[in-house]
Design a protein that fits this description.
disordered C terminus; two-stranded antiparallel sheet; globular; 61% helix; mainly alpha; 4% strand
Length: 120
């Protein structure tokens, strides 16, 4: 688990957000996680900022320890996780729910999706 490798300050931040965001639906969680990740870009170069934001997201998802995907918004978050188990779970859900809108090319890879779209 990535969470176990985080420094104590980042663990506190992950734990705090995991607890506070748990009450929201996946749409709101996506919005708030996006907002929280923005400051990483202000302090780090773009590559490291992207990795730090993905690490934060992964830590939060690991704290929730969910074993099922409920909807497309959750699947999209899981696809951004650094945890290969999260990505595999999301890919499996997308395969089982082609109507959800994950566009796949000939290779079978997800070729187009938006990270935080409104889902109607």
């Amino acid at each position: 688990m990535l969470y176990e490798k985080l420094n104590p300050e980042m663990k506190r931040m992950v734990d705090d957000y995991a607890q506070r965001l748990q009450v929201y639906d996946w749409g709101r969680r996506s919005e708030l996680l996006s907002e929280v990740s923005l400051p990483f870009g202000e302090e780090l170069d773009p590559r490291r900022a992207k990795l730090a934001a993905a690490g934060f997201l992964t830590g939060v998802l690991e704290r929730w320890d969910l074993q099922e995907i409920e909807d497309l918004r959750q699947a999209r978050l899981y696809l951004m996780s650094l945890n290969p188990e999260h990505r595999a779970l999301a890919e499996s859900w997308l395969d089982e729910h082609p109507e959800a809108g994950g566009d796949r090319g000939r290779s079978g890879q997800l070729t187009r999706y938006r990270i935080y779209p409104p889902v109607t």
